[in-house]
Amino acid sequence: MKDKPDAIILDLEDSIQKKKKDEARIALSDSVKKLSVFPIIVRVNNAKSIHFKKDIEQAVINRVTAIQVPKVDSAELVRSVSTKITVLEKARGVTKNSISLIPMIESASAVMSVSQIARSSARVVALAFGSGDYALDLGLPWTKEGLEYEAPRMIIPIVAKASELFAIDGVFMDLDDTNSFMKDSTRSRRLGYQGRMVVHPDQVKIANLAYLPAREEVRWAIKVDRAYRNAISRDIGAIKVDGLLVDELHYKLAKRILSST
């Protein structure tokens, strides 16, 4: 099981104190170079921040894979950022359309506009859910149980799938409760997310494990794959495996599971 992340997010937003914002922005280029063995995502400050425009300008450089835009409430914001990136790419000799966008869905208004946000620009490759800020927007606490943000958490992967995007789940904030983190990540995968953001190295390996098919799923897929291929060879379209109906739908699911292991 790999213990490395799929990408590194260089955060200019919540993890940086206000008095350190300019310093972090200036250091961004060197950080990108040092970590460029990984795909690099830069999370900028939100559009209402005085740092937003400067962050975008600093982030459009070679080796940056994507810009993550927090607290996106409208498709118009995504389009304006995309236009700005296009201008900067051309001016700086950065490969055209090389920098993608990942809007973060973190409020009630964003949830209501998520379909438009998902289709706002060809640069958008994923939708990311910010459960903590969403709960805050509703005046509710973030909890491990997740009841406060269950509805949008279910909606986002549906919209992402319909828009041919990835769905990225939010941070699990209890860094010491690894059992609950594994349970929550497994649930996240079952909701349709392909991965999630983490804030501590100890969470990486657990998350990587959670977003792969479980052993029981793999065993089921192997059994179904073999049984259904045998049935096809005998012109049979539906069979029973372990007492359960198996037809072409289940065969396709089994192949998908096996291809992801």
Strand order of the largest sheet: 1-2-3-4-5-6-7
Count of alpha/pi helices: 11
User: How many β-strand runs?
Assistant: 9
**Number of structurally distinct domains:** 2
Using the coordinates above, name the CATH class of the largest domain. Answer: Alpha Beta
CATH architecture of the largest domain: Alpha-Beta Barrel
Could you explain how this protein is built, in words?
Strand 6 (166-169), helix 8 (178-191) and strand 7 form a beta-alpha-beta unit. This protein is an alpha/beta fold. The strands form two sheets. The chain has a seven-stranded parallel β-sheet with strand order 1-2-3-4-5-6-7. Strands 8-9 form a two-stranded antiparallel ribbon. The N and C termini lie close together (11 Å). The protein is globular. The protein has two domains: 8-212, Phosphoenolpyruvate-binding domains (TIM Barrel, Alpha-Beta Barrel); 216-259, no CATH class. Helix 1 runs parallel beside helix 2, helix 8 runs parallel beside helix 9 and helix 10 packs across helix 11. It is built from eleven helices and nine strands. Helices cover 48% and strands 14% of the residues. The longest helix has 19 residues, at 215-233.
List the helices and strands and how they pair.
Elements (H helix, E strand, L loop, with lengths): L7 E4 L9 H14 L5 E4 L8 H8 L4 E6 L5 H18 L7 E6 L2 H5 L1 H5 L7 E4 L1 H7 L12 H13 L3 E4 L8 H14 L3 E2 L5 H9 L4 H19 L5 E3 L2 E3 L1 H12 L2
Parallel strand pairs: 1-2, 2-3, 3-4, 4-5, 5-6, 6-7
Antiparallel strand pairs: 8-9
